[in-house]
Amino acid sequence: MILPKERDPRFITLRRGGSLTDSTHHSLAEWAATCAEHVLYLFEQANPDDKRPRQAIELTRAWINGEIPMKQAHQAAFAANAAAKGLPDSARFAALAAGQAVAVAHVAAHELGAAAYAIKAVRASVDEQEKEETGRRECQWQRDQLSDTIRELVLDDQSQRNHLCWSVFNC
């Protein structure tokens, strides 16, 4: 479970009574897509013929650009998650990262899910003694991708929800 029981109003759109603007929502989705895309190769190495996770990332960006409705983006999350079934952990977590990224269109707080699963993916791709350092490097890479408009929000969210996200944001 990566989502808190009580939703943070900073991740609820203005239309639904929160404080999240469309621009910030789109920035969160772009960052989540970037995090998922960074580890997508782990899925594609294991299952090169399955395009569902890549399509989920593409549909995230299509939603950001207003090319598809939220509902279509949200449906892609289910497809990416289904692609994860039965695969080794690194590939499975990479597909789940893509599913979380596209789910940001529906619930902005999924942005941390994309990042957390991406970290889990790279950690699962290396030997036990390399897991912590590899995870820290991925976490730092992700933070380096944050735009100024969402940096403070995401870093605070990581601090508040790190315990729900397998404590992967200790970088």
Task: Tell me what you see in this structure.
The chain has 171 residues and is mainly alpha-helical. It has helices at 22-46, 52-64, 70-83, 89-103, 111-124, 131-144, 151-161. Helix 2 (52-64) runs parallel beside helix 4 (89-103) and helix 4 (89-103) runs antiparallel to helix 5 (111-124). The radius of gyration is 15 Å and the shape is globular. The mean pLDDT is 97.
List keywords for this structure.
globular; 62% helix; single chain; mainly alpha; 171 residues
Helix residue percentage: 55-70%
What is the string of SSEs from the N terminus onward? Answer: HHHHHHH
- Counting helices, strands and paired strands, the structural category is mainly alpha
Count of β-strands:
0
> Whole-number average pLDDT?
97
Please tell me what the overall shape is.
globular
Gyration radius over CA: 15 Å
How would you sum up the major sheet?
none
Cα end-to-end separation: 21 Å
Q: Uncertain regions: pLDDT < 50 for 5+ in a row?
A: none
* Strand percentage: under 5%
**How many individual helices?**
7
Write a short abstract of this structure.
This protein is mainly α and 171 residues long. It has helices at 22-46, 52-64, 70-83, 89-103, 111-124, 131-144, 151-161.
Describe how the helices and strands are arranged:
Elements: H1 22-46, H2 52-64, H3 70-83, H4 89-103, H5 111-124, H6 131-144, H7 151-161
Helix pairs in contact: 1-2, 1-4, 1-5, 2-3, 2-4, 3-4, 4-5, 5-6
